[in-house]
Automatic annotation (TrEMBL), chain B:
This is FAD binding domain-containing protein. It comes from Modicisalibacter luteus. Coiled coil: none annotated. The keyword Flavoprotein applies. The keyword Flavoprotein applies. Pfam families: CO_deh_flav_C (PF03450), FAD_binding_5 (PF00941). Residues 1-222 form the FAD-binding PCMH-type domain.
Length: 174, 335
């Protein structure tokens, strides 16, 4: 579907159509509202966190059209017609995503503030075959997610563990 | 964040017409520089023109062998593009050394060229900054200038150009295609960014309303080795203190052709013709690289906190040249 043309005056509220976690959602926002605030304040999906609001911490990471991005630096109006996955959409049919399961099992957090963003980055990188599977490549690919508590060691273990589960999962299915 | 009008455009003509020559209007691509700076009240557009729907998302090899990159190709797509990895590994390396996965997924090729300095005084709307507000002074000159430039500086501004991607493009050589209210034109990449001089607010040669549509890379140097080295305060997700992008081709142990560009130390993506001259027709040996490093940094002007960048850049140059030569030798070995 071609997204419809958007034209908004400053201060004017416009309608934005999104697919959030598979559901069609309609928002009424002004053009200066970023996706992060639209998700949290309009759709009440507060799993996505605001850390720095400037692209520096990764707490706001969501998937847009399957790619991990910083939702604090993307306008909601720029997402017209796009598919967005937030941390609330990671679990399927009441079952945790392998990344969520692994974060639990490995205690891959302390305060938990960075965790939704960490898990969204991890889920994206495990689906991306351009990123190598070794620890150094995973660390590099995850470096856009800062953990103030320094839970990096367990985060890395969790990601690599989730990889094993996901690999055996696809093998099982085929 | 301040309010602004927002318009989408479906093709280049529509985008350019919608923008007009109004300097209060801004194109938005990835938004990673623009929205960051609007939030800080450093950029104050009254209207945005979204160029993400323009048909500028392709990478294409032209008949003459050059590679044409659409303005909105993301940094991630470009870094992993098979033609870029095979023929322009320096560009791929430089892109992957920049920012984070998420930012590279958003950032576009033209947006990266147009990114603004990370000078903290430029980013602080209450500080004196000639680049942001002409004639207001420069708080960096006698302030905390550890991250600032040593090459291409003026008494008006010493801010570094922060891009990694642009360092590779400066070394490779490229042409920008521009389209604006007065029509289409082309400009060499290395003529696009300006030195601060006495007009640091004039950062590039773009005329009001002009859109970058394509970036076309020169044909690669045959048999050249490539290496991009980025030195920074932490291992990833940090801007360069000094970086060096090197391309070297070798024949019988002698350097046939060399290109060297520097990042993190200069006010624009810095092609060092001095270093290239020092390398030409010389043996591919560390002593040659050291001479080139000396030549590259001979005109460097330090300020209170950034003198360390001069020896740091020299070492970066030597290491990048050494690795590029190794790469060239590996490439030439019969496999
Ligand atoms: C936390 C952080 C860390 C970063 N680290 C690095 C790093 O290590 N290395 C690095 O190189 N970069 C780094 N960056 C910068 C990043 O690469 C740039 O922000 C990005 O490339 C800008 O591209 P964009 O598409 O998002 O541009 P936008 O924000 O959309 O636009 C930037 C500017 O370019 C103009 N513009 C955009 N497209 C066009 C066009 N086609 N024609 C004319 N004008 C246009 C806009 O009007 C605006 O003025 C970092 C950024 C952040 C926020
Ligand atoms: S160095 Fe340049 S950008 Fe920084 S405060 Fe001075 S004039 Fe502004
Ligand atoms: S809140 Fe978006 S990166 Fe920090
Ligand atoms: S768990 Fe506290 S910031 Fe990461």
């Amino acid at each position: 579907m071609e997204p419809s043309e958007t034209s908004a005056q400053a201060d004017e509220t416009v309608t934005v159509n999104l697919f959030v976690n598979g559901e069609p959602r309609q928002l009424q926002v002004t053009s200066n509202v970023v996706l992060l605030d639209a998700l949290r304040d309009e759709l009440h999906l507060t799993g996505t966190k605001k850390g720095c609001d400037h692209g520096q911490c990764g707490a706001c990471t969501v998937h847009v059209e399957g790619k991990a991005i910083n939702s604090c630096l993307r306008l909601a109006v720029m997402c017209e017609g796009q598919h967005i996955t937030t941390v609330e959409g990671l679990a399927r049919n009441g079952e945790l995503h392998p990344v969520q399961r692994a974060f639990l099992d490995h205690d891959a957090y302390q305060c938990g503030y960075c965790t939704p963003g960490q898990m969204m980055s991890a889920a994206a990188l495990l689906e991306d075959d351009r990123i190598a599977a070794d620890d150094a490549s995973v660390r590099e690919a995850m470096s856009g997610n800062i953990c103030r508590c320094g839970a990096y060691k367990n985060i890395l273990e969790a990601v690599q563990d989730a990889r094993q589960v996901m690999v055996s999962g696809t093998e099982g299915r085929s | 964040m301040r309010t602004f009008a927002y318009r989408t455009a479906d093709d280049v003509t529509q985008a350019v017409t919608t923008h007009g020559a109004d300097d209060q209007v801004a194109y938005v691509a990835g938004g990673t520089t623009l929205l960051d700076l609007v939030k800080l009240d450093v950029m104050r557009p009254t209207q945005l023109v979204d160029i993400n729907r323009l048909p500028l998302g392709e990478v294409e090899t032209l008949d003459d062998g050059r590679l044409r990159i659409g303005a909105t190709v993301t940094n991630t797509e470009l870094a992993h593009h098979p033609e870029v990895k095979a023929r322009y590994p320096l560009l791929s390396q430089a892109l992957l050394a920049g920012a984070s996965t998420q930012l590279r997924n958003m950032a576009t090729t033209a947006g990266n060229i147009m990114q603004r300095t990370r000078c903290p005084y430029y980013r602080d709307a209450s500080a004196a900054c000639n680049r942001r507000e002409p004639g207001s002074g420069c708080d960096a000159m006698h302030g905390i200038n550890r991250m600032h430039a040593v090459l291409g500086v003026s008494d008006q501004c010493i801010a570094t150009h922060p891009s990694d991607m642009c360092i590779a493009m400066a070394a490779i050589g490229a042409t920008l295609t521009l389209e604006g209210p007065d029509g289409k034109r082309e400009i060499a990449f290395n003529d696009f960014h300006r030195l601060p001089g006495d007009q640091p607010e004039k950062e590039h040669e773009l005329r009001p309303g002009e859109l970058i549509t394509y970036i076309t890379l020169d044909t690669p140097i045959e048999g050249a080795g490539a290496y991009y080295l980025k030195l920074r305060d932490r291992a990833s997700y940090e801007f360069a203190l000094a970086s060096a992008g090197a391309l070297v081709s070798i024949q019988d142990g002698v350097i046939h052709e060399a290109r060297l560009a520097l990042g993190g130390v200069a006010t624009k993506p810095w092609r060092s013709h001095e270093a290239e001259q020092a390398l030409h027709n010389q043996p591919a040996a560390v002593s040659t690289f050291e001479m080139a490093a000396e030549a590259a940094m001979q005109d460097a002007v330090p300020h209170e906190h950034n003198a360390f960048k001069i020896p740091l850049a020299r070492q970066a140059i030597v290491r990048a040249l050494r690795e590029a030569c190794k790469d060239a030798e590996n490439a030439n070995e019969p496999r």
